[in-house]
Amino acid sequence: MRLYKNSILVLLLISTLDASSLKEIIQSTLKNNENLKASVIDSRAKEKAYNSVENTHNPTLSAGISHSRLDIDTRAIQVKDTLMGSLKLGIDIYDGGKSSAIKRQKSYEYQASKLDTITTQKETILQIVTLFFQTKTAIDSIEVFKEKGITLKAQYQRMKTKYDIKMVTIDEVLKLRSEYETNQYTIEEIKYQKEELLETLSLLSGRKIKSIDDSVLPNVKNLTLRDSEHIESLNLSLKALDENVKIVESAKNIQVRLEDSLNVYNYSDYNEKLLMDLPETQNQLNISLTYRLFDTTTKHQIEVAKLAKLASNERVIFAKNQEKSTFNLAKKKLITQQLKINSLKSAVEMGESVYKLVKIKYQNGTVDNITYLDALSKRTFNKALYRQALNNYEIAKANYYFSSGIDYKRVLKRW
């Protein structure tokens, strides 16, 4: 047993040198995760969409060139070849409030996208925390079952020696051997789970995670529930839908547009005696006022937009109630998990005492191997459950922190 403990200490020392902390993995994830990068890019796209409608008068400047030729039965007073170059400036003096509503809509969508990016970051961090402590549980379980394996192997060899001198039956030897082999299989199964978890951590963080350290989350007390970035984003999306209603309604308002065109002409193949006063340059100013008297779609489009806004409002109400419920449950879970740790700590101490007592009786031959193996299994099971409870407590802390709407940067700064 002393050799086993010394070996474990050496292995832990070596692994610690290459172990990744929870904070390092989170920072790497925020920097390298492709989904988070995509979220940032989506937000930039929303920003560009907002910039494209920032000028509500929609000024346009266009240039054009055209050539026309007349053939067959042309009159003497007609120009056969005309080349025209044009430069046109247009601006919406009033478009019924449509452009202003679009500008506000795109602004809300851009602000919402930035909050959605933060929400995605928090969800990913929570996923990292969960995977980290699940990995830690697997590592702790491997250590516990390895300790059990060493004990079983020692008892198996002791019984085999007794069997060789006809002191015990073959059943006792085979029972210990079977338990040892089952234990070894359990270790290999947990090792696979550990590698699977480490691989997922590597994928999310964008770096190879070979081992992890003994990081724990900092303690943050007296948290109060506040609207999360998700709720704020939904509220902004609701405002964007309200602007969408105004965009559709703008079709019923007066539209006023101003256009100024500068045209330059060049003529050829015409009768210069009859056509002596052809214009070379012309400027045309045009102002138009339109009002839609009737259409068959605007009314229905307004109803669609209003219903979409109503549905979104219901989602906001549900999301708020859901976050309140999640926060309260997370708070209770944290308390329950702490009670579980205290209970399992007592179970571990009791299991250790019972095992030591049964072990002495077993070696003295006063109890059978079934009683001994049962005590050993309970001891191992309680140890594994206790370690798992400690790690689950850290996961519960993370769920409590993030369900409160706290800024994740506050938690990272406490490390």
* Low-pLDDT regions: none
Query: What kind of oligomer do you see?
Result: single chain
- What is the alpha-carbon Rg in Å? 38 Å
Percent of residues in helices comes to 55-70%
Description of the structure:
The chain is elongated, with a radius of gyration of 38 Å. It contains nine helices and four strands. A four-stranded antiparallel sheet has the order 1-2-3-4, with no helix packed on it. The longest helix has 67 residues, at 98-164. By secondary structure, the protein is an alpha+beta fold. Helix 7 (298-363) packs antiparallel against helix 8. It has helices at residues 2-17, 22-32, 34-52, 98-164, 170-205, 229-249, 298-363, 369-403, 408-413; strands at 60-69, 81-94, 255-268, 281-290. 25% of the residues are buried. 67% of the residues lie in helices and 12% in strands.
Provide a compact summary of the structure.
Helices cover 67% and strands 12% of the residues. It is an alpha+beta fold and 415 residues long. Helix 3 runs antiparallel to helix 4 (98-164), helix 4 (98-164) packs antiparallel against helix 5 and helix 4 runs antiparallel to helix 6.
